[in-house]
Amino acid sequence: MKKNKKIQHYIEYISLKMLISFLHLFSINAAKKIGFFLADIAFVFVPIRKKHIIDSLTKSFPAKSEREIKKIAKDVYKQFVCTVVEIIFVSKMTDEQIKNAVCFENIYLIERALKQGKGGVIMSAHFGNWEMLALSFAKRYPLSVIVAKQENPYFDNIINDIRSKRGYKTIYKDVAPLGVLRALKRNEFVAILADQHAGAQGVYTPFFYREVSTPKGPAVFALRAKCPLYTGFCARQPDGRYVVTFEEISLPNTGDDEKNIEVIMTEYNKILQRHVEENPSFWFWFHRRWKSQKTK
Q: Is the pTM of this model over 0.85?
């Protein structure tokens, strides 16, 4: 690592540690109010990808007015800040509080998978509080989550320290195939956030009326291991709790591996779109989800 970059990463790390220490002086509700105030300021004066978010929302919700779109965009900032604050306060929660923070509906699907002995793949998204979903789930069942390594190694250590101390394992993307198959063989569950642009390696499937490059990984792992495949998205409730409703996606058998993958990931995007339509501000619209178009 170049010296200047290392210094930059360390400054960012110290800034984050100071922010965490500052917010820990308050209750979580007070910290959220501070976060919402900062989100309002950022929306006006530090509009990170604001234009991109509004453009994406406008194309995804053509029936909504400009005023409605702007309101959702503003709430996207607030929801993200809310998620960050909640993650920061995980260290102050007991294991029992983490376990009870999320209500899991259709949990019988997970219990049934355990009895089958092949584990299961859970496809989630940057929706609501995806970290709380994993943390709470891991208090009940063995879980590994595929993660991307952060550019800032200090950030990476902080995040993974929170994850590992509170119950779930991480598998870095660059070693995912082997790690995932081993976890499934141990009758564990593997969670994958499959809502980001996958580039040339992805499969193009519909999402909000446009074709998007969608990761193949979840479908590939489930098909190879012949294990159950689920979706689960963490919706924040007005009282601060979360609800996750599991849905199973049946493994197709078209006789064509690529077609099977396309069928699975098309269904995933369909289910995710339904959840985003219900709660538009919960999804992480900062992503450049429609970065490229399908070539003929």
A: yes
